[in-house]
Amino acid sequence: MRAARRLFLQRAAAAPTRLCAAVGRFVSLFLPAMTAAVLAIIFFAFVFRAGWVWLGELVVYMHAVLFTAGAAYTLGCDEHVRIDVFYGRMRPRAKAIADLAGIVFLLVPSCGVILYFSFPYVRDSWTVLEHSPEGTGLPAVFILKSFILLMPAFLLMQGMAMAAKALLVLSGDGDGNGDNGNNGNINLPPAACGGGSEFSAPNGEGGGKLRGGGGRLLPSAATCHSRESGNPTVVLRAHSTPPENSPPTSSSGNSPTPPRCAAGGKEEGKQP
After folding, report:
1. Residue 261 in 3-state DSSP?
2. Is residue 180 within 8 Å of residue 227, measured between CB atoms?
3. Residue 237 in contact with residue 259, Cβ under 8 Å?
4. Which range scores top for mean pLDDT: 25-39, 68-82, 199-213?
5. Which of 58, 135, 206, 266 is deepest in the core (most CB within 10 A)?
6. d(CA 40, CA 53)
7. Which of 37-51, 131-145, 201-215 has the lowest mean pLDDT?
8. Whether pLDDT at 11 is above 50
9. Cα separation of the two ends of the chain
10. What are the backbone dihedrals phi and psi of residue 225, each rounded to the nearest 5 degrees, phi first?
């Protein structure tokens, strides 16, 4: 029963996170495209005294989609602007309680209000297939307004994933630092947010199934920290059997060289 619950929560956390990450990566391409469009508007306006309404509206469209569709991805990477006074000093279980409370009492009601009051507005736009009031503008205002509904929908999915992770910690199937209870799996953060690998390996086994590139499991204990915040992101614990391609030993042959963080950033550790 415990294993089934753990598997359910892991899947509930993984699927929405992957979807929101894919959407976030895609809409992030709008940023350079939006910059190029603005430069084109300025160039043609000052050099050729020419301009196009549809190009200016395209910049507005990309700007709106970038923020509405990318909000959930940013939330999943914990990159929203906030003032942290207490959270960074909390223990993993206290952080899980705070996350769960914030999702249930703040995120879900806020998204519900947005969905409830915006649905008639978006529905009416689709009914008439609303287009730009300008004759040469883009005929897709109804599509742009649809992102008012997609934003809270994506945020709710990402919130569900965060709630599942918090429940994993509170149920004893994870301690918030990468050690998932009795099963002993070690989970690194996804490459979408940290640039490192995402893989897990059971305690006592040498390897693990690598899901991303750029990292490897280490035989020594190490705590990786985020370059930006300095907060621990993952703990790698000692294994009874060293993994394949283990780090070379020092000249004395007694201990491996200092560990490297698979997810990037500085590290601190000790030899097993």
Report:
1. coil
2. no
3. no
4. 25-39
5. 58
6. 13
7. 201-215
8. yes
9. 33
10. -120, 150
